[in-house]
Amino acid sequence: ISSTRVGFCTGTLINNEANNGRPYFLTAFHCVDINKNNVLEQSEIDALASAVFQFQFWRRYGVYQ
User: How big is the CA angle at 35 (ends 34 and 41), to the nearest 5 degrees?
Assistant: First the structure.
């Protein structure tokens, strides 16, 4: 996950019991708790709508690809 407000975190795609291909992204709570008050507020949920989820991201020293 990357966003100007969230930073960088890792996570994984998971499936559900229905096995219907609906994507769910599992990550740590502190990755989305922008103001660090241990409460997920509507503004933080809204920020996820513009988050970028990039898969197989590699970083060479000093260079972002």
Answer: 75
The CA-based angle 7-54-40, given to 5 degrees, is: 45
Tens of pLDDT, residue by residue over 37-60, are 999 999 988 888 888 877 776 666
Residue 10 makes CB contacts below 8 A (sequence gap 6+) with 27
Pairing of strands 59-60, 24-27: unpaired
Torsion region of 6: left, alpha or beta (phi above 0 gives left; psi -120 to 50 gives alpha): alpha
The rounded mean pLDDT for the chain is 80
CA 19 to chain centre: 22
Q: Whole-prediction pTM value?
A: 0.62
Domain positions in the chain are 2-64
